[in-house]
């Protein structure tokens, strides 16, 4: 593929510098947009159970805030770094899986989860996002990092797709989550979105829905997409 530098505009350079500064100030935060990290920080609860495809700084960050976390990683060398970070943090609530085959990667994780993060192995995010739909409990959130690479948007982040989803699996995904509340965030370098699975009728479900709405509106302040 021919490399292009068309994204190196003054706006992108300013965005990149801002993101670099944010990451230097918050070295422990996940590599998601800052707005998404703030939204999740206000929504997560100590009793939550989570699944993430793709590990990194998010692994320790999530594990410190929830009851349990299932993590799926395909890169054995990277996994050694993450496992060391988990050990150094004194955490014992992470179920860590290293799988190298595409099929095993997508199939990892069983039961119901309060949140699922889709990231990691190239060529699997569409399949993971589709599978996550059935793994989420009502009221759970599905987070897709680099969503602008796969789902059409007006994002100014590089490599954003414009006219149609990246493939038929993403078309199916968007059809499945049509009725779900969506929160899309961007920092001009990359985008992270979440979809809220429709809640049940319990009072606890309704409280968490209100909490997510309040937190997202406070963080985004009307400047990014909430649907």
Describe the structure in your own words.
With 227 residues, this protein is α/β, with parallel strands linked by helices. The chain has one domain (29-226): Vaccinia Virus protein VP39 (Rossmann fold, 3-Layer(aba) Sandwich). Helix content is 40%, strand content 20%. It contains 8 helices and 8 strands; from the N terminus they run H-H-E-H-E-H-E-H-E-H-E-H-E-E-H-E. It has helices at 10-25, 34-43, 57-63, 76-88, 102-107, 125-135, 168-176, 203-220, and strands at residues 49-53, 68-73, 94-98, 113-118, 136-145, 181-186, 191-196, 225-226. Helix 6 (125-135) runs parallel beside helix 7. The chain is globular. The N and C termini lie far apart (35 Å). The model has no long low-confidence stretch (mean pLDDT 90).
Structural topology:
Layout: H1 10-25, H2 34-43, E1 49-53, H3 57-63, E2 68-73, H4 76-88, E3 94-98, H5 102-107, E4 113-118, H6 125-135, E5 136-145, H7 168-176, E6 181-186, E7 191-196, H8 203-220, E8 225-226
Parallel strand pairs: 1-2, 1-4, 2-3, 4-5
Antiparallel strand pairs: 5-7, 6-7, 6-8
Task: Give a concise summary.
40% of the residues lie in helices and 20% in strands. The protein is α/β, with parallel strands linked by helices and 227 residues long. The model has no long low-confidence stretch (mean pLDDT 90).
């Amino acid at each position: 593929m021919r490399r292009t530098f068309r994204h190196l505009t003054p706006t992108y350079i300013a965005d990149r510098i801002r993101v670099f500064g944010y990451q230097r100030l918050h070295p422990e935060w996940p590599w998601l947009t800052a707005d998404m990290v703030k939204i999740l920080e206000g929504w997560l609860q100590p009793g939550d159970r989570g699944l993430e495809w793709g590990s990194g700084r998010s692994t320790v960050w999530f594990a410190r805030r929830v009851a349990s976390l299932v993590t799926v990683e395909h890169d054995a060398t990277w996994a050694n770094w993450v496992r060391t970070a988990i050990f150094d943090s004194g955490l014992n609530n992470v179920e860590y899986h290293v799988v190298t085959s595409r099929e095993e990667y997508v199939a990892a994780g069983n039961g119901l989860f309060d949140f699922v993060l889709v990231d990691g192995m190239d060529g699997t995010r569409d399949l993971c996002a589709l599978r996550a739909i059935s793994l989420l409990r009502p009221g759970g959130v599905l987070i897709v990092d680099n969503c602008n690479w796969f789902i059409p948007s007006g994002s100014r982040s590089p490599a954003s797709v414009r006219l149609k989803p990246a493939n038929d699996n993403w078309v199916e995904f968007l059809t499945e989550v049509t009725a779900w509340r969506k929160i899309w965030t961007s920092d001009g370098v990359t985008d992270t979105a979440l979809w809220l699975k429709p809640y049940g009728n319990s009072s606890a479900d309704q409280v968490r829905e209100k909490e997510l709405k309040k937190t997202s509106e406070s963080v985004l302040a009307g400047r990014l997409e909430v649907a």
